[in-house]
Amino acid sequence: MNEVHTVRLFHASLVWPLQLEPLSANIDDSRHWERFEAMQTEHPWRRIDDEFTEDPAQFAERHYREFVSFLPYVQRFLYGEGRSRRRDPGDPPGASPIHVFRRKDIAALRLTLRDGQPPVVLEIAHIDLYFFHDLDLVQLNVEVRARDLPLDTVRELLFRFGRAYPSGWEESGEGLHNVSLAEWLDAAGHVVARSDTQRREKYLRYVCEHRSPCISEHWAGLLRPLVLAHADEPGELRYRLIEYQRMPLTAYLAVDRPRELNREQWVRIGLATTLHPGEALPINDPAVIEFEKRYCQDRYWSDSTQGPNTRFMCTGNALTVVGDAASPFFIDGERGLLAQFRHQYFIVFLIAHLHRAALLVFSETLVDAVNDLEIRDENSVRRFKRRIRANFETFLRFTHRYWFHELSERVHIQAIYRLCSNHLHNDEIYADVRDEIREMSNYLDSDAQRRQSNTVVRLTVITILGLIATVTTGYFGMNIIAFGEGSVTERVIHGSVASIAFVLLVFFAVARSRQLSDFLEALADGKSTLRSRLRMLLNVFRRHEEPPPR
Q1: What are phi and psi of 243, to 5 degrees?
Q2: Can you tell me whether residue 286 is helix, strand or coil?
Q3: Largest pairwise CA distance in the chain
Q4: Contact 239, 20 (CB under 8 A)
Q5: What pLDDT, in 10s, does the model give residues 522-544?
Q6: Cα–Cα distance measured from residue 541 to residue 161, given in angstroms and rounded to the nearest whole number
Q7: How many CB atoms lie within 10 A of CB 268?
Q8: In angstroms, rounded to a whole number, what is the distance separating the alpha carbons of residues 521 and 315?
Q9: Looking at the whole model, is its pTM more than 0.85?
Q10: What is the per-residue burial (b if ≥16 Cβ within 10 Å, else e) of 476-505?
Q11: 147 has which bridge partners?
């Protein structure tokens, strides 16, 4: 194959957000990552610290460059607050809300793109799980790399690699749009887990039974002890899919003489996750017609021999960087653009998809709460109120802790973030979720006011009845019947009977407070007739069906 079509260095990172199911009520108040860490003897995931070690000599320059690329409030979000000898002991440093776990037992990923083709082996850079404080979601990050791959193979990889499950099956039995076979390999080359997309009956049955998609076994095995929500296997930490089966990804391609790539090749690379490699280019598609305007950030693309010749393309679901393999700065993993891609630009992409995933989880929680609401069931009403108020509190914390519009003063980093966020429609989703939560909050407030109003009506009715008794006894005197002259036994009996009678009268007034209120309103209405007033009075003593709770 021509050298210009060879990718000398290939890096790709999947960022797959998943919604975590709430922990069981019989489990203590621990968080998801705390339960996950407590189970570490049962799985290969291990919690890792950030790059800020006790020994400054171990702090690499690429980590420093990553840190200073972001604004201070983003730094505190990503890394927490640092150590200080002068800090008040009563005010400990704030930790980052991000909790990262990594597994190191997998060394490579062997992919057979299509049946009969030779497999492609990708080296595993790392496999991480990101948990977030106060958010019921986790993000899986898988970073792979390879060298000297044909450009057509890379495009095929970008299209097929990050697929959670097949979108259908071909006549041969192979899954549509996914790789034919995916195998995780350990350091000795042994298979740790492999895909099973050819098992058509498994996927059909799962969707039929659970109305939810089933993921491929190689992804399920990678995530364990996290278990798919509707799976039959046991597990207290369960997850469900948030979006479509195609996982968001970032890709880094170092090619020889990138200026010689024609426009169709650029479009196919930039839209590789959505354009089928074997199909003709849809030239009338608006995404193709306006490709440069919609998806390209060409601040570092001069299309000249002097350079720079690095092109950033972002569709929201994918961030792709293509540059010159002959440029030492482009392939430098410590100080060059490769280091920036693996650190700064990866974090930008991670935050953008964290925002979208968290907002979708909030919306899903609201929908689930409304679906579970049965207005005639008091337990359901109370459960609904608790869930809405808890969601409202979490959304407030999300807004102040996670929600950013400005990440960096560096123009290009901020431009990539806005490009990604705009394609994901994060601002629009945030506004929709905020309005939904506000409507729910207004409903709870109006419901509380309605209940208070009903209580005031009942108290008013009882007060009016008490006023009648008070005025009557005050006019005739309290000792109409001289109970005080009898024996102690007689006075106790008379007092008990009177107390029971008054308690029953008050209970009756409370039970018929709504009807008594209607009767009092009829009395106050000068236009109502005596007959209608009497009907209202008789209505107080009639038996009525239980009204729905207010």
Answers
A1: -125, -160
A2: helix
A3: 120
A4: yes
A5: 666 666 777 777 777 777 677 65
A6: 73
A7: 21
A8: 64
A9: no
A10: eeeeeeeeeeeeeeeeeeeeeeeeeeeeee
A11: 9
Whole-angstrom distance, CA of residue 503 vs CA of residue 462: 11
Q: Which residue has the tokens 């391609």?
A: 253
| Token output for 346 | 């990866």
Q: What's the rounded Cα separation, in Å, for the pair 392 and 414?
A: 29
User: Are 50 and 96 contacting, i.e. CB atoms less than 8 angstroms apart?
Assistant: yes
What is the full DSSP assignment across 121-145?
Answer: EEEEEEEEEEEETT-SEEEEEEEEE
Q: Where are the domains of the chain?
A: 1-50+96-255, 454-540
Task: State percent of the chain over pLDDT 70.
Answer: 84
Q: List the beta bridge partners of residue 184.
A: 109, 193
Q: How far is CA 366 from CA 277, 360, 369, in A?
A: 39, 10, 5
Residue with tokens 């049962």: 42
CB within 8 Å of 450: residues ≥ 6 apart = 550
Question: CA distances (Å), 496 to each of 61, 422, 490, 492, 509, in order?
Answer: 86, 74, 10, 6, 20
**First-to-final CA distance of the chain:** 74
User: pLDDT for 59-115, tens place per residue?
Assistant: 778 888 888 899 999 998 888 876 554 544 444 456 788 999 999 999 999 999 998
CA distances from 34 to 22, 27, 134, 224, 241 (A): 13, 12, 13, 15, 22
Q: Could you give the percent of the chain with pLDDT greater than 90?
A: 49
| Residue 307 vs residues 285, 293, 433, 464: alpha-carbon distances, Å | 31, 21, 44, 89
Are 129 and 39 in contact by the 8 Å Cβ rule? The answer is no
Angle at 346 between CA 341 and CA 351, to 5 degrees: 150
Residue 501 CA: distances (Å) to CA of 42, 425, 475, 483, 505: 67, 66, 21, 16, 6
Q: CA-based angle 203:209:214, to the nearest 5?
A: 35
SS (H, E, C) 294-340: HHEECCCECCCCCCCECEEEECCCEEEEEEECCCHHHHCCCCCHHHH
C-beta neighbour count of 68 within 10 angstroms: 10
Check: CB of residue 296 under 8 Å from CB of residue 415: no
User: Counting every residue, how long is the chain?
Assistant: 550
Q: Return the SS3 of 149.
A: strand
C-beta separation of 78 from 70 below 8 A:
yes
β-sheet bridge partners, residue 140? 16, 129
Helix (H) or strand (E) holding 500: helix 488-511
Residue 112 contacts residue 119 (beta carbons within 8 Å): yes
- The C-alpha atoms of residue 86 and residue 165 are separated, in whole angstroms, by 53
List the Cα angle 231/241/233 in 5-degree steps: 15
